């Protein structure tokens, strides 16, 4: 509506670079009956002005870049450019079937590029586009076109990243046929987009949320969340999981011919966010090209292509790694979702595990190439190379795959499964059903299964490596659930116990996360296993070493309490056995002797109750409450409960704070009832890990909470009237 004369006059002073005038022309040429031919040439003039800024924005630090530094994109948006382009793109959807207008692919590409560049440089544009649901769903329909696929995918990813409400995949028109139209390359890129739609929005800090807040949230959300509905939608797409498994397990040499990849690289060049990635890739490529000219590699290219178009091996590898990352992430989220069992069945059937096992040395845990690549991606602040992220994603997948699931034995190969059976026969114990029932045609092949390969790299990992945490978590989830002697012996024979102790004691590991994962793993490895305690004693063979070990345990009970629980439970079981070997280990083992002292158990109990409060309970530290309960349940079995409670009372008096431990413990147990007696709560974990029936857990808590002040097992009997403080209700404050 502003006159052309005025726009021309202000243009120089305002440094608008003629953008408002160009937009006015664009507006005139994009009326409903136009053929858009003029629009394209106008866009060609606007495009470079914006892409230069976007280029600068990507190469400079995004944080430092201020809006004022990017006047062109700002001007473009200010004069309605963004809305105009959205209107041009969506025009064909408004016209009746008879006279369908066709917008050329190049025009669509340019519109998308300009929108993307404006999103990068100008605050608020992405958010505005995200609020237009019709536009977001429309973008998905553009993905059916191969030529505009990459541009569309990149823009959608940006928009979904800021969208407040998660989109419903169900709303995308013809989703199943859209997905089936993708080739494998597009499917991998599509997984990047899916990642945002199937992950719960705040999963990142799951362990940090207080349980009170989480329970309150669950009461509000009665139905499944959007992410869960989206997961179900994906699982209903025919052949979807099978294609993901194929993508995750294909070898680099199987990737499609060279030419389409080169063409895609050219597209990426025009496509900003990945320009940096490509520069980095090209750098590696040149290094590799120099190397590979001296040595020929069987996979380095197809015989019939000329040397010029052959892609260096490392570029193919990098490309493949970036794909596998996205795919493994999606599989991992689905494995942790509501349809876990269905996903498990499919993943086993499509031989994901043996496939990953075959890629382990060449791709997943390959020797690092010279250049460390830094990619921008899921998170701008983390400098993860794709290599590193792939390893972590792979370990997370193993962890969710074997956690409390019978399919975990697919991580072994046939010989290793036979070894498990042999261990059981030798020890004269029945084989685990899951081992017997494992379908041998779906297990790993090759010399080693995935689990043993993982142990190998775990032992070689440098002390300060960030992988240690994930490796320990993955192996620990294999041992979780009902304790299996054969599984433990399988790992003990491979030197795992000594490796863990070396890390905890000799290298005096300092990282809290790694220590916690090592203590948890050690607990699962040693629980009820007399041979493990014997090995422990052989390794920790001096008082100095034992003292270092104790200092590590005591440095943070939140991290080590699962190990304390395992030692307490094992000691209790060993004391009730009349076996000469057990008696010998009991008398010799430093760790068991230490834990058999009443004063030590009381000291642990006192500290475990003291470090947690109802208001600060999280998924991570609630285990301290359960460990303190285990100590008291074992005391109750021996009819020592009153003695333990009286000792806690005396300890309070010594500390000059009568009532402060027992009042807190009373509140914690009331919360325990609320939390674990909820019908959705899964109590089998508590039973399996302790071998104490859940009924006994419940009874013990009720006895401790009894209001009867004359009962010798009720907490209230040990708090003087004056110090009673147990009637408060919990709230989320």
TrEMBL record:
<keyword id="KW-0675">Receptor</keyword>
<feature type="region of interest" description="Disordered">
    <location>
        <begin position="288"/>
        <end position="308"/>
    </location>
</feature>
<dbReference type="GO" id="GO:0031464">
    <property type="term" value="C:Cul4A-RING E3 ubiquitin ligase complex"/>
</dbReference>
<dbReference type="GO" id="GO:0019902">
    <property type="term" value="F:phosphatase binding"/>
</dbReference>
<protein>
    <submittedName>
        <fullName>Short transient receptor potential channel 4-associated protein</fullName>
    </submittedName>
</protein>
<dbReference type="Pfam" id="PF12463">
    <property type="entry name" value="DUF3689"/>
</dbReference>
<dbReference type="InterPro" id="IPR022162">
    <property type="entry name" value="TRPC4AP"/>
</dbReference>
<dbReference type="InterPro" id="IPR016024">
    <property type="entry name" value="ARM-type_fold"/>
</dbReference>
<dbReference type="GO" id="GO:0006511">
    <property type="term" value="P:ubiquitin-dependent protein catabolic process"/>
</dbReference>
């Amino acid at each position: 509506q502003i006159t052309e004369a005025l726009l021309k006059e202000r243009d120089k002073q305002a440094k608008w670079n003629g953008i408002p005038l160009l937009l006015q022309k664009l507006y005139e040429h994009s009326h409903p009956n136009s053929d858009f031919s003029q629009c394209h040439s106008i866009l060609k003039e606007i495009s470079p002005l914006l892409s230069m800024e976007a280029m600068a924005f990507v190469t400079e630090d995004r944080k430092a870049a201020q809006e004022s530094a990017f006047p062109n994109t700002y001007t473009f948006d200010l004069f309605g450019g963004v809305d105009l382009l959205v209107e041009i793109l969506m025009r064909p959807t408004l016209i009746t079937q008879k006279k369908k207008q066709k917008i050329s692919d190049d025009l669509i590409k340019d519109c998308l590029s300009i929108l993307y560049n404006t999103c990068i440089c100008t605050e608020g544009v992405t958010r505005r586009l995200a609020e237009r649901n019709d536009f977001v769903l429309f973008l998905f329909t553009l993905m059916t076109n191969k030529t505009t696929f990459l541009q569309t995918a990149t823009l959608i990813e940006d928009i979904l990243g800021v969208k407040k409400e998660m989109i419903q995949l169900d709303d995308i028109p013809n989703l199943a046929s859209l997905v089936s139209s993708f080739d494998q390359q597009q499917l991998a890129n599509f997984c990047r987009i899916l990642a945002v739609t199937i992950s719960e929005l705040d999963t990142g800090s799951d362990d940090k949320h207080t349980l009170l807040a989480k329970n309150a949230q669950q009461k509000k959300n009665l139905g499944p969340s959007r992410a869960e509905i989206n997961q179900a939608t994906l699982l209903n797409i025919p052949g979807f999981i099978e294609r993901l498994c194929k993508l995750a397990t294909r070898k680099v040499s199987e990737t499609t011919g060279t030419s389409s990849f080169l063409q895609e690289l050219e597209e990426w060049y025009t496509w900003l966010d990945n320009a940096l990635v490509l520069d980095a890739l090209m750098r590696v490529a040149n290094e590799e090209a120099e190397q590979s000219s001296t040595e020929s590699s069987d996979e380095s290219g197809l015989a019939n292509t000329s040397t010029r178009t052959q892609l260096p091996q490392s570029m193919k590898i990098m490309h493949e790694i970036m794909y596998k990352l996205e795919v493994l992430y999606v599989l991992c989220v689905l494995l942790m979702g509501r349809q876990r069992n269905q996903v498990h069945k499919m993943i086993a059937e499509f031989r994901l595990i043996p496939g990953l096992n075959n890629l382990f040395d060449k791709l997943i845990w390959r020797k690092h190439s010279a250049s460390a690549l830094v990619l921008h991606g899921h998170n701008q602040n983390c400098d993860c190379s794709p290599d590193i992220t792939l390893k972590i994603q792979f370990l997370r997948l193993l962890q969710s795959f074997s956690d409390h699931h019978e399919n975990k034995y697919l991580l072994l190969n046939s010989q290793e499964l036979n070894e498990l059976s042999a261990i059981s026969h030798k020890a004269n114990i029945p084989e685990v059903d899951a081992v017997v029932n494992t379908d041998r045609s779906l297990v790993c092949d090759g010399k080693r299964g995935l689990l043993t390969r993982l142990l190998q790299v775990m032992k070689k990992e440098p002390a300060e490596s960030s992988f240690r945490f994930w490796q320990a978590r993955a192996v620990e989830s294999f041992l979780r659930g009902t304790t299996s002697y054969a599984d433990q012996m399988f790992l003990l024979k491979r030197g795992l116990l000594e490796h863990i102790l070396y890390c905890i004691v000799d290298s005096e590991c300092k990282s809290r996360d790694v220590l916690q994962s090592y203590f948890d793993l050690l607990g699962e490895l040693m629980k009820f296993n007399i041979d493990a305690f014997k090995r422990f004693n052989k390794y920790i063979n001096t008082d100095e070493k034992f003292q270092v070990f104790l200092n590590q345990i005591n440095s943070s009970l939140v991290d080590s309490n699962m190990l304390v629980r395992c030692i307490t439970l094992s000691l209790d079981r060993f004391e009730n056995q009349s076996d000469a070997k057990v008696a010998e280990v009991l008398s010799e083992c430093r760790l068991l002797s230490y834990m058999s002292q009443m004063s030590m158990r009381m000291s642990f109990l006192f500290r475990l109750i003291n470090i947690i409060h109802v208001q600060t309970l999280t998924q991570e530290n609630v285990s301290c409450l359960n460990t303190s309960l285990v100590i008291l349940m074992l005391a109750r079995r021996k009819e020592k409960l009153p003695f333990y409670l009286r000792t806690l009372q005396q300890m309070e008096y010594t500390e000059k704070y009568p009532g402060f431990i027992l009042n807190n413990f009373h509140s914690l147990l009331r919360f325990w009832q609320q939390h674990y007696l909820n019908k959705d709560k899964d109590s089998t974990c508590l039973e399996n890990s302790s071998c104490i029936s859940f009924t006994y857990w419940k009874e013990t808590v009720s006895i401790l909470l009894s209001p009867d002040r004359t009962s010798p097992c009720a907490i209230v009997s040990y708090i003087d009237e004056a110090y009673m403080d147990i009637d408060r209700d919990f709230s989320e404050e």
